[in-house]
Design a protein that fits this description.
single chain; mainly beta; four-stranded antiparallel sheet
Length: about 290
């Protein structure tokens, strides 16, 4: 995806005073009130901004045989979720690493129909295992190689994120960094795209990306996306990942990992393209 799209029909210049300053709450309300096409919202700067879900990917075969028509496992959101107020497709900022383009298709788990105008958020750690908005906590509170965040799965001693509660309470950020976090609006085919870097790792967890789907102002899916271990090994042999050694948890030893969470990954230019279909219980009736 070219930078000027940013998932919306606006220029990158206007993002700074437009979509980027809308905030997730306003975006959710706007998307929940429309059946399709574009809508107009008022930004935090007082300007009017048209929102039009858009993606540059030709998804004709991108999502073939990628976990279709199966309810995506719902998991913990982990200790470091918060509304980052970042509506954008390129979430890298200053983080160094192997480029990763994520293409996610959101559909209803019962009908398998695409879910347009859904808000999709992702967040993950950097090559050293740090989370923006929580660098101190995710580095263990100071110097040396980061041991990683508190356990996210609730079954290990000392589990739960800041403020307790097993890691599913929204975080109050403790720093002003916002890298590797962002939200996009799904297009008519239910597709969103993000440009990021391959996630790093931290103690007690396999490599993963967090994802959350909102429909009509409701959180209808919270899950995680995983990677084939051969690809993880190939990426981690490269700088800056190679500076972070001692990885202790892999897919087969992770308490959250499921095969259905694996992304379909192919090489692309200087990095990788990864895709998956997310099937959400959009009406939250348990089916």
């Amino acid at each position: 995806m070219s930078d000027h799209h940013e998932g919306q029909r606006v220029s990158r210049r206007s993002m700074f005073a437009g979509v980027g300053s809308i905030g997730l709450g306003t975006l959710l309300a706007a998307c929940g009130s429309q059946a399709g096409g574009s809508t107009t919202v008022t930004t935090s700067t007082g300007e009017s901004q048209a929102l039009t879900p858009q993606t540059a990917t030709d998804a004709s075969d991108l999502f073939s045989d990628v976990n279709t028509c199966t309810l995506t496992p719902d998991t913990t959101q982990g200790p470091y979720y918060f509304d980052a107020d970042k509506v954008r497709s390129d979430i890298r900022e200053d983080r160094q690493g192997v480029r990763l383009r994520l293409a996610l298709k959101v559909q209803d788990s019962e009908t398998c129909a695409a879910l347009p105008n859904a808000v999709v958020e992702i967040w993950h750690c950097d090559a050293a295992g740090l989370y923006s908005g929580a660098e101190d906590q995710s580095s263990g509170g100071g110097g040396g190689m980061p041991p990683g965040p508190p356990p996210e799965n609730g079954e290990k001693p000392g589990g739960g994120g800041p403020g307790g509660g097993g890691g599913d309470q929204d975080l109050v950020p403790t720093d002003d960094k916002r890298y590797l976090r962002g939200a996009q609006v799904s297009n008519a085919e239910g597709v969103v795209e993000f440009t990021t870097i391959w996630p790093g790792w931290y103690t007690g967890r396999t490599v993963h990306v967090h994802v959350m789907v909102h429909v009509s102002n409701e959180r209808v899916l919270t899950s995680q996306l995983m990677f084939d271990e051969q690809l993880n090994s190939a990426v981690f042999a490269r700088a800056p990942y190679s500076e972070h050694t001692g990885r202790d948890t892999f897919n087969d030893g992770d308490n959250i990992f499921e095969d259905s969470m694996l992304l379909k990954v192919v090489p692309e230019d200087d990095g990788y393209l990864a895709s998956i279909v997310l099937s959400a219980d959009s009406d939250q009736d348990g089916a």
